[in-house]
Design a protein that fits this description.
Shape of chain B: globular
Order of helices and strands of chain A: EEEHEEHEHHHHEHEHEEHHH
Distance between the termini of chain A: 37 Å
CATH topology of chain A: Rossmann fold
GO molecular function (chain A): ATP binding; ATP hydrolysis activity
CATH class of the largest domain in chain B: Alpha Beta
Oligomer: heterodimer
Number of strands of chain B: 12
InterPro entries (chain A): AAA+_ATPase, ABC_Ni/Peptide_Import, ABC_transporter-like_ATP-bd, ABC_transporter-like_CS, Oligopep_ABC_C, P-loop_NTPase
Order of helices and strands of chain B: EHEEHEEHEHHHEHEHEEHHHEE
Structural class of chain A: alpha/beta
Structural class of chain B: alpha/beta
CATH topology of the largest domain in chain B: Rossmann fold
Strand content of chain B: 15-25%
Helix content of chain A: 25-40%
Strand order of the largest sheet of chain A: 6-7-8-3-9-10
Helix content of chain B: 25-40%
Keywords (chain A): ATP-binding, Cell membrane, Membrane, Nucleotide-binding, Transport
Shape of chain A: globular
Radius of gyration of chain B: 21 Å
CATH superfamily of chain A: P-loop containing nucleotide triphosphate hydrolases
Number of helices of chain A: 11
Number of domains of chain A: 1
Largest sheet of chain B: 8 strands, mixed
Membrane topology (chain A): Peripheral membrane protein
Family (chain A): Belongs to the ABC transporter superfamily.
Number of helices of chain B: 11
């Protein structure tokens, strides 16, 4: 692992101006991803996990925009790049895998056309070499008979095979960073297992840094090295996956784990987090989670939302769970 | 305990052929998709029977046949001894229909956006000319919402609250059986827990029977008493919950359990299952699972296995023991 992380996000803020005020779908988020590492980003819908991924790759839809903070790709700032400079970076340095493999491929072009287009654009090779590389890319992601399938159209592939094509497309220009936004959500369990195994293998063999956005804690547990838990646009907890999932420090993470039905639990009642995530336009004062938190105290309602630094960079909570629970951090 | 629902050699074939003229010009044969093939099981009163399977396994089609939204091609479904598809006594059909209700997957698509919640919930009773005064308010409180919500429209509610409204509507006619087709797969985990707990509570309070359709093994394990595993329209294994999870017999069930992501399996290296679900229009000969099965023998490609009983488990496999 090199010292410079492949991706370094520093105090990122994304804002959407609306008639009713400014919304912050991503609020002061910082994390690093190193080469060969998979960072899982979890959270419920509206937590800002996809928005963070889109901000990194420069795909924010207007009027959403980055208002402060930095995004560094291998040490180089990329958050202020525009137009052509950004386009050259996308695909070459960063690849993106979206949730729905059907809508992220062009139905009118063959799979081969789409792959060679990307390769020609970024790698400066001949048409013939590009085609050979495209075939190799399809073989690498496990598409049988790649040489004969390369001239097929996306609709001729099954869902799982299509997602493999999308992964091949994201990886064909040999990027350093891949952002996978819910890559297995639209797939069946058995195909999901294949895709997760593929992502892990590619990450290990190629040393690609992967940001894996998902809401499935099981997928995170199996694939990720570290995990970032998001709530209402902020990082609630960040740490090695085993520690975060087995010994959560933030009450939200702990609640999320307890409300997931585990095979060992049987028919017992699930612990539920009361209420629902607040809307961005209507965030409570203090910690955004306090109205749903079992441990909320006066400080949580009063003081502005804590950051990760309040608990050793691990959890954004005034009263983190765990050993030193009784002590108020920073008091 | 008696069987409340009896599904007997149920088969449903859909005609997915091109239009007649295309078939003539392009010389295409008729294309028939067998969504459900010779499925039999029974659901006991006040129990939760779960159907699991991947896409195309026919689980939703079975649900629709059970509530009478789709007629079977062959075989029969008997609810409280009445076969909805063939029963001629209108009064008996009416009575059974009121006893069986359905909850759908997408709470955004299954509520009419132009109706007030009160009208949505009371509709199953109003349609039969019943007395709906105070009904919606009572049901809203029963599912954990407020009686004041009756005057609101569906868009004013979150996904979890909408699913509660769907449950309230399903309860309006005082049913015995609720068919739940992926009731929580559109919801976030914390909200899913709320809805699952509500469903468990209602089952105890009202003595409901659930046919629970899901692809999520952890949810099924949490909810079900008895589980049927479907593959390509065929029931491959059926067993009480603990028996199935402790000792899966069918190689497909095992594959499914191995492939499912587990929260306690950090960095687990899975050997992912090979291949994909075959095309239901041209299913493999013999046992539908044989091309992907690690245990397949010659006989599997020739002969479709019959359901056999091994202890508490029913399994359709030549090799399983």
């Amino acid at each position: 692992m090199t010292d410079t992380p492949v991706l370094s996000v520093r105090n990122l803020v994304v804002e959407i101006p609306t008639r009713r005020g400014i919304l912050r779908p991503v609020d002061n988020v910082s994390y690093d991803i190193h080469a060969g590492e998979i960072l899982g980003v979890v959270g419920e819908s509206g937590a800002g996990k996809s928005m963070t991924g889109n901000a990194v790759i420069g795909l924010l839809d207007r009027p959403a925009r980055i208002t402060s903070g930095e995004i560094l790709l291998s040490g180089q700032p990329i958050h202020n790049l525009k137009g052509e400079a950004l386009r050259r970076l996308r695909g070459k340095k960063m690849g993106m895998i979206f949730q729905d493999p059907l809508t992220s491929l062009n139905p009118l072009l063959t799979v081969g056309d789409q792959l060679t287009e990307t390769i020609l654009e970024h790698l400066g090779v001949s048409q013939q070499q590009a085609r050979e590389r495209a075939i190799a890319a399809l073989e690498e992601v496990g598409i049988p008979a790649a040489r004969s399938r390369i001239d097929s159209y996306p609709h001729e592939f099954s869902g799982g095979m299509r997602q493999r094509v999308v992964i091949a497309l994201a990886l064909c220009a040999e990027p350093d960073l891949v952002i996978a936004d819910e890559p297995t959500t639209a797939l069946d369990v058995s195909v999901q297992a294949q895709i997760v195994a593929l992502l892990k293998r590619l990450c290990r063999e190629r040393g690609v840094a992967v940001m894996l956005v998902t809401h499935d804690m099981g997928v995170i547990a199996e694939a990720a090295d570290r995990v970032a838990v998001m709530y209402a646009g902020r990082l609630a907890e960040l740490g090695p996956v085993r520690e975060v999932l087995t010994a959560a420090r933030h009450p939200y993470t702990s609640g999320l784990m307890a409300s997931t039905p585990l095979a060992s639990q049987g028919h017992e009642r699930l612990r539920q987090i009361p209420g629902a995530m607040p809307r961005l336009g209507n965030l409570p004062d203090g910690c955004a989670f306090h109205p749903r938190c079992d441990y909320a105290q006066d400080r949580c309602r009063r003081d502005p939302g804590p950051t990760l630094e309040t608990c050793d960079g691990r959890a954004a909570c005034w009263f983190p769970l765990g050993a030193e629970r009784k002590q108020e951090v920073g008091a | 305990m008696s069987a409340l629902i009896k599904v007997d050699h149920l088969t449903r074939v859909f005609d997915v052929s091109k239009p007649w003229l295309n078939r003539v010009i392009e010389r295409l044969p008729r294309a028939l998709l067998t969504a459900v093939s010779d499925v039999s099981f029974e659901i006991e009163e006040n129990s939760v029977y779960a159907l699991v399977g991947e896409s195309g396994s026919g689980k939703s089609t079975i649900g629709k046949i059970v509530v009478g939204l789709v007629p079977p091609s062959e075989g029969a479904v008997e609810v409280e001894g009445v076969d909805l598809a063939t029963e001629t006594d209108a009064a008996r059909v009416e009575a059974v229909r009121a006893d069986i209700q359905m909850i759908f997957q997408d709470p955004y698509a299954s509520l009419n956006p132009r109706w007030r919640v009160r009208d949505i919930i009371a509709e199953p009773v109003a349609a039969k000319g019943g007395d709906t005064r105070g009904l919606a308010e009572k049901l809203l409180e029963q599912v954990g919402l407020s009686a004041r919500d009756a005057d609101k429209y569906p868009h004013e509610f979150s996904g979890g609250q909408r699913q509660r409204i769907c449950i309230a509507r399903a309860l309006a006619s005082g049913p015995k059986i609720i068919v739940c087709d992926e009731p929580t797969s559109a919801l976030d985990v914390s909200v899913q827990a709320q809805v699952l707990n509500l469903m468990s509570d209602l089952r105890e309070e009202l003595g409901l029977t659930y046919l629970f359709i899901s692809h999520d093994l952890t949810v099924v394990h949490h909810m079900a008493d008895r589980i049927g595993v479907l593959y390509l329209g065929r029931l491959v294994e059926e067993a009480p919950r603990d028996r199935l999870f402790d000792d899966p017999k069918h190689p497909y069930t095992r594959m499914l359990f191995d492939a499912a992501p587990r929260m306690d399996a950090f960095g687990r290296e899975v050997d992912p299952p090979k291949g994909e679900i075959p095309d239901a229009i041209n299913p493999p000969s013999g046992c539908a699972f044989h091309p992907r099965c690690p245990l397949a023998i010659d006989r599997c490609s020739r002969e479709r296995p019959e359901m056999r009983r091994i202890g508490d488990t029913r399994v359709a496999c030549h090799v399983a023991e």
